[in-house]
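Deliverable D5.2: sample structural annotation.
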Amino acid sequence: QVQLVESGGGLVQPGGSLRLSCAVSGSIFGLYTMGWYRQTPGKRRELVAFIRVSAITNYADSVKGRFTISRDNAKNMVFLQMNSLKPEDTAVYYCNADGSNWGGPNYWGQGTQVTVSS
């Protein structure tokens, strides 16, 4: 059983930075594409960024140039560095482990709140 635990959310002023972390336990971390998603009330959960085992990354247009996803396979962790934050970045951010490229399961963390407000 894979467990994902996010941390690092909080309240930040516009233009500020936060770093989200996701610790993964219980399986072989190196097999999963890791992603960050976010969701606001009444809206669908949307992809923010993902990073493949090969370290290839992809970002939503809304965060390109501001957010950076990275992974540490030795520590079973994935990170999301968020810079130049905007009020529209306010959401609950979820960590995801996607094993679909090898027929494996999909796992979610419990989410961490990010609020960008002055």
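Annotation notes: The radius of gyration is 14 Å. The chain has no helices and eleven strands.
The annotation will be released with the project's public dataset once the embargo ends.
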